[in-house]
Amino acid sequence: MKTWPAGQLTVGKREVRYQMTIAAARQGAPVSKTTHPHAPVPADPAAVPDGTVQYLRIGDLELESGARLPDVTLGYETWGTLNADRSNAVLIEHALTGDTHVTRGASDEPGWWEQLAGPGAPVDTEKYFVISINILGGCYGSTGPSSTAPDGKPWGSRFPLVTLRDTTEAEARLADALGIRSWFAVIGGSLGGARALEWAVSYPERVQRCAVISVGASSTAEQIAFAQAQTLSIRQDPNFKGGDYYGGPEPEAGLALARRIAHITYRSAAELDGRFGRNAQDSEAPLEAGSLAGRGRYQVESYLDHQGNKLVRRFDANSYIAITEALMSHDISRGRGELTEALAPATAEFIVAAVDSDRLYFPAQSHALAEALPGEVAVHTIEAPIGHDGFLTEIGQLTSQLRQHFFG
Predict the structure, then answer these.
(1) How many degrees, rounded to 5, is the angle at CA 407 between CA 105 and CA 395?
(2) 292, 325, 358: which is the final residue of a domain?
């Protein structure tokens, strides 16, 4: 059975306790996902090496659904130094299957947004205190379905539905514990952009600047449809067992299929055609099989197989469902009136950006969001032929805008 991280800890690696917060290195084989190193108070940020996973208990959380999630823990990483008045803190929100490792720290492990954050980058970690928090429901250190419930067993099928408003409230408690009353900036792309936007509306007095990249004001019917196909792929895997598969075979086939479906929406048609066309995979023969079961693969099929197999080695299927359904809940105007009315409380300076070839979150959604935000908000275009994932690979195109408007 695979084991999963409370922050991708290295087995046998030194764990350092700072004021009861556990900080641990990230690389190597992960420890069991069903236990979290809990900590009642945060560590002194100056005492923890950059890019080290830390854990903080934030107490019980009353959810939008009416359910109560007890003794919640959040996993997070930090870089840089929090200044005396705690005014230089920048929150970077990860996307659906992301983790908290935005950029390199004390180790050489690469981060997933190094064009954005790091020494000398637009979010300069020599000037700003950067934090990234694993979303509630995740499997990289925060309480999620694989975590241990009060009865000593994994939450599994009993884990409650969490919305982006729930996850934002949880993150606000972590900010409180660190003494951060206001973020210098909150930045995210895709799901991370939805999380950033929720922060700016739910806690307008706590967000001075907000960058919302490659996401709109709500998840559309089409986006919910794509998401449902992914979660259903997992739920119909015989090994899923209603979500209570821990300790036995895991629903790897279902999770890999979910990733295939998602990845198609992350890449443009032009990207897939240009890279793969109708070419066969190596010596395989898609048109020469004597039976359907013996058919060889096209290159694009092999590519999707690879993407699915990569994810199952590092992610929990229940967390995939929990986070996907949190994204399905994304609707900034829910219960807040029309979109302009819902966004009116936001006082942050905004940067809105879209990838021109995005076929998951269409640029039109970013334009609609910008038009509804208070004041004059332009939409910056990221030119990237690959599609939605351009928000990750081509974030450097926003360097001048970020430096001019946020980090000059």
Answers:
(1) 65
(2) 325
Please identify which of the residues 237, 358, 366, 380 carries the catalytic annotation: 358
Instruction: Please tell me whether residues 196 and 295 are part of one structural domain.
Output: no
Q: Please name which of 158, 126, 125 lies closest in space to residue 143, comparing C-alpha atoms.
A: 158
* Whole-angstrom distance, CA of residue 9 vs CA of residue 145: 18
Residues 182-216 as b/e (b if ≥16 CB within 10 A, e otherwise) read ebbbbbbbbbbbbbbbbbbbbbbebbbbbbbbbbb
pLDDT at 45 over 70: no
Question: Which one of the listed residues 190, 329, 357, 366 is annotated catalytic?
Answer: 190
Domain that holds residue 71: 15-219+331-405
Q: What is the CA radius of gyration of the chain?
A: 21
190 is catalytic: yes
Indicate the residue among 266, 291, 325 that finishes a domain.
325
Residue 10 resides in a domain? no
Q: Judge contact between 96 and 191, C-beta under 8 A.
A: yes
pTM tops 0.90, yes or no: yes
Does 135 share its domain with 160? Answer: yes
Give the chain's mean pLDDT: 91
